[in-house]
Amino acid sequence: MAEYQFRATEKKWQAFWEKNQTFNAKDDFQKPKYYALDMFPYPSGAGLHVGHPLGYIASDIVARFKKQQGFNVLHPMGFDSFGLPAEQYAIQTGQHPAITTEQNIKRYIEQLKNIGFAYDWKREVRTSEPSFYKWTQWIFMQLFNSWYDFTDNKARPISVLIEHFEKAGNQLIKAACDEDTESFKANDWLHFSDEEKQKILLKYRIAYLSEAIVNWCPALGTVLSNDEVKDGYSERGGHPVERKKMMQWSMRISAFAERLLEGLNRLDWPEPVKEMQRNWIGKSVGAELSFEVADYQNQEIKVFTTRVDTIYGVTFMVLAPEHELVAQITTAEQKEAVEEYVKVAKNRSERERMTEVKRVSGVFTGAYAIHPFTGEKIQVWIGDYVLAGYGTGAVMAVPSDDERDLAFAQHFNLPVREVVENDKIVNSDFLTGLPIKEAIAKAVSYIEEKGIGKGKVNYRMRDAIFSRQRYWGEPVPVYFKNDIPYLLEEDQLPLELPEVDKYLPTEDGEPPLARAKNWKTEEGYELEKSTMPGWAGSSWYMFRYMDPHNSGAFVDQNKQEYWKNVDLYIGGSEHATGHLLYSRFWTKFLFDLGYITVDEPFQKMINQGMIQGRSNFVYRVEGKNTYVSKNLKDDYTTQMLHVDVNIVFNDELDIEKFRRWRPENADAEFILEDGKYICGTEIEKMSKSKHNVVNPDDVIEQYGADTLRLYEMFLGPLEQFKPWNTNGIDGTSKFLKKLWRLFHNEKGEFEVAEGEVDKKALKALHLAIQKVEYDIEHFSFNTSVSTFMICVNTLTDLKCNNKAILSDLVRIIAPYAPHICEELWELLGNKGSISEAGWPAFNPEFIKENDFTYPVSVNGKHRDNMTFAVNSPKEEIEKAVLANPVIQKWIEGKPIKKMIIVPNKIVNIVV
RNA sequence: GCCGGGAUGGUGAAAUUGGUAGACACGCAAGACUUAAAAUCUUGUGAACAUUUGUUCGUGCGGGUUCAAGUCCCGCUCCUGGCACCA
């Protein structure tokens, strides 16, 4: 064999792995386990581009490394296969989304296998398969059948709550529930009808149905959760989103807010993602207190504040336009103005409201509130800078210490009273003179004593809307009797998606499932018509891989106890406030009910940076079919046009391919520089329309999968954003050829030497072993590739073809470039996969040096190098250094102030 | 506005506790092999000046700490990600 035949070899080993099921995880509970997972991909129609595998390659390297180290490795892949694009395509073409999805997955798997990933394909899961979503529905049922107990801080079965109600009503219980839950006694409960009981329980369930203001996206015909809306537009598709009041399923994730926040401290995650989750949860510690409304007996305005210490600075109050008291307290004179304002504010889209942040608007209600400390009468206004959804939807305005209140006060000429000076409270009766922190504590205990308020923690995070008025999602296992939701029986799962004639809403605006024939239970009760959101399946899939074919449980308890949770999770940081929060929430829930033994799903996470596209441009002379090379373009009037990056090499256009690219290019003319056509470049997102998409299959065809893997790693640190540029790929390709040549003689025949090993070769090898172990554990894959190059270069220079050295060498390169290493391992006379050949032990003895070459500096400037034995005494070094003529020249008789000798580091002389 | 991340040759980058800045590659240049090209190999390649040793400058900008700073501290500029009327 003259040269390495990468295509044939790669195919050979991919077939070998598949045939021998080399990378199947075993349920061998004796072995230490390692679970490496990539974020669940959505199989899009465009297939994988060269940016997608970046993280997959990294996790694959870790998985293979851990396997060689003797771990039982779980490294699966599957598909988050419910989702909007397949459904949008179905709407346009009438094709069932299951068919498109199936095709896309097929293509994804082909592409993934082509790269040679060590996935356990036996464990592949798809969220749109009934055998999978049966368990998504089952978990939904558990969520419906549970409530959140703030006393024990955990989710508990609803039966426990019912017992409470029977014994003591709901007055003493600390449970997460709807705002409008009325209190009742045990006796009341006993006399409620079953339906009344169900209505009450619904206010406590973790999966609950309620009327909520939702993000409605008319273009998609569905509601969206907060994390799916960006700046007033839908994240997918960029359609406008409006606020609408609708009956919706929600998840009481807000009950878990404190634990979701606290749990972050125990996770080994990138700090920015943790910070994003902290901001999203938005904890603020403060107090809630009530202001009486003047001339109304029982009306109070509740406010939340983080600065009770500024209470004496309250000069007016502001309610959100949607606040329920607005209609009741507005005086006759102000009625018209208030109604007009509320109407405008309500019709204003979220989008408009955001863009007009700086504009102050509001109107006086005519009503007054009583200041609880001073008894003063203060005006009550409404203004849309107060958000209905946060806190109590009302604020006590302290214009002296709050920018927004101040802007409002100045605009409407309301009074301002200074209460804080130099971080001390002033003009505030019993609080005067106190530092802010103490004043807050004192004010809180005062309001608690007086019974007008209490200390309170508030969270920004809202409950998550769980219904989607779409077809391609999990049906909700619920039916309705007199508008009250009831669960199906467990043995009725999975509730499969019905066939429909069209994937559109009905004429009456009902979701697509309303089109299904007989979408009812056997008894004739109507089934729920909305489906679950995209994040349902991905909130628990990491546990399914542990036991993917179990038909009796979502995961076997023993298996889960062994695999615990994900040791390494690699994916993009764009899921920070969506998937990564929801999956933590479901994990905590399942933990509370005792179904799993961990309360966090992903112990360590790494975010890979996005690979951007590097677009190429050609410059067409205006009005002609003539293209001018980049550096000559300023002499002409030109149009800059995207050109397919696949026909450009090192920014030089392949003119023949360009002529064939599009028919109109066939007779194009070119103005060249130095005989070449040079293209312009720009960094943009990889997309079809920019002609900058690079398909990994094409790269593999040309260079091989091992080269692609090495090159993606060599590009730079994993977390960094970087443009894809094939310019450097030759380097990694050449490296593999060099590696191959180490094992072959000049005639191209395989030839390795037995016997004695060269000390220098041994040192080169062990330096590499040490470095690669360090790098993999620190996720620094780019430096490993350099290390391999250095090692192979050294061994080439040494003409080393020692069998023992080369055997170790291929074992450390194998996680990165598995195909070529398998082949070499086999040529070395071994049977079976190199992935089962263990990891070479690093021996520090082999890298020990007898000498150290000191850089010698004078006044911090490097002047010469001098070699000494590693254990030379300082005196000896000092003497030799001072005797060095180069150093003497720099000292030139100046007095030596100080001589710094750091053993085996540096020598510095200060003169 | 608030909170992160970053800035090093022509390019991608490296420098693990402060200790020879630019490892390893790409590109470029020169040479070898070849009728020629490709492939491969060798040598050089931060900048400026001297060009035989050599000297000075140099990690976004301005200060500081230190024998010694890409690395630590203070102040700025630019790029980038996230959040944003959250009381």
Automatic annotation (TrEMBL):
Instruction: Give the gene that encodes this protein.
Output: leuS
Gene Ontology molecular-function annotations: ligase activity
Q: Which PROSITE patterns match?
A: AA_TRNA_LIGASE_I
Arranged from A to Z, the UniProt key words for this protein are:
Aminoacyl-tRNA synthetase, ATP-binding, Cytoplasm, Ligase, Nucleotide-binding, Protein biosynthesis
The text of the family note is: Belongs to the class-I aminoacyl-tRNA synthetase family.
Report the main location listed first in the record: cytoplasm
Q: Which residues form the Leucyl-tRNA synthetase editing domain?
A: 278-424
Pinpoint the Methionyl/Valyl/Leucyl/Isoleucyl-tRNA synthetase anticodon-binding domain residues: 758-876
* Domain named Aminoacyl-tRNA synthetase class Ia: residues: 12-145, 684-711
The entry's localization annotation reads: Cytoplasm
The identity of this protein, by name, is: Leucine--tRNA ligase
